[in-house]
Design brief:
Belongs to the MscS (TC 1.A.23) family. It is found in: Cell membrane. There is one protein chain. The protein folds into three domains: 94 residues, Orthogonal Bundle (Helix Hairpins), CATH 1.10.287.1260; 42 residues, Roll (SH3 type barrels), CATH 2.30.30; 83 residues, 2-Layer Sandwich (Alpha-Beta Plaits). The chain is 51% helix and 20% strand. α2 runs antiparallel to α3. It is elongated. It starts with a helix and ends with a helix.
Length: 284
């Protein structure tokens, strides 16, 4: 039995110089399958670890745990595949030991033109440890904005509201606006005609604000700000509420719906900028 094991070990390590191309291919396939299995096992262990951490009394926040889990999974994947690369190169007769001994891992990375990769990895760790954003946050960076789906050690994936997925190298992320930290503002403006009673419209808005003050997604308010603009199109009335992160748009939609219904009930018309067209005969 020991002799059989030694023979298999010698075969995998490539000590036999008289192996065929088919055997080399089989060796590479076995190495890749082993790496795949080990990677999957590490993923399961990482998930279980962070699951236990979240269940503790003083546990890690869910978004933070998800971010750390994704980072560790990416790191494990890169390490395992890099380790597997050495015996695979040996199958092609490349002396990896001498390369690593003379150039070192850092020199080998630069030799393959990996300066940008190193920058992406370093920036990724800064994003994680300085807590710029986490998985599930709504952010804007440069011309892109959306929900963070994944943070890797070299790239970040952002899904915008149209469904497009933006994959950005971490080294390209410089200025970040995080719209998921702290309370968010929901602002609604409504324009009425100059002929309408302003005090009556404000009283109706106050009733709307009072009726929606118990909404779970609203942290404070809504508060009627009053007349905020006088233009040729009409009188602009505004109201504002502070909401939970990512809930401001839904609150704004609910407020607009409630205002429209209450205005219609009390006979207050919203300015629709309709034009009156006079025929030539009417001018005579």
């Amino acid at each position: 039995m020991i002799e059989v094991f030694n023979e298999i070990n010698r075969w995998l390590l490539g000590e036999d110089k008289h192996i065929t191309i088919l055997e080399k291919t089989l060796k590479i396939a076995i190495i890749l399958i082993c790496v795949k299995i080990i990677t999957k096992i590490s993923y399961v262990m990482i998930d279980k670890f962070f699951k236990r951490q979240q269940n503790l009394k003083i546990g890690i926040e869910e978004r933070k745990a998800n971010t750390l889990a994704i980072i560790l999974k990416s790191l494990c994947k890169y390490i395992f595949y890099f380790i597997a690369l050495i015996p695979i190169l040996d199958q092609f007769g490349i002396e990896t030991k001498s390369i690593l001994a003379t150039a070192g891992v850092g020199g080998l990375a630069i030799g393959f033109g990996a300066q940008s990769l190193v920058k992406d990895v370093i920036t990724g760790f800064f994003i994680l440890f300085e807590d710029y954003f986490s998985v599930g946050d709504y952010i804007q960076t440069g011309e892109y904005e959306g929900v963070v789906e994944e943070i890797g050690i070299r790239s970040t994936r952002i899904r915008d509201f149209s469904g497009d997925l933006h994959i950005m190298p971490n080294g390209k992320i410089e200025i970040v606006t995080n719209r998921s930290r702290g309370d968010m503002r929901a602002l609604v403006e409504v324009r009425i005609n100059y002929e309408e009673d302003i005090d009556k419209a404000l009283r109706v808005l106050e009733r709307v604000a009072q009726s929606m003050s118990n909404e779970e997604t609203i942290v404070s308010g809504p508060k009627v700000l009053g007349v905020t603009s006088l233009t040729k199109e009409g009188i602009t009335l505004s109201m504002m509420a502070m909401t939970r992160p990512m809930e401001q748009w839904q609150v704004e939609r609910n407020l607009r719906k409630a205002i429209k219904e209450e205005f219609q009930k009390h006979g207050i018309s919203i300015n629709d900028r309709r034009k009156v067209v006079l025929e030539r005969d009417d001018l005579l």
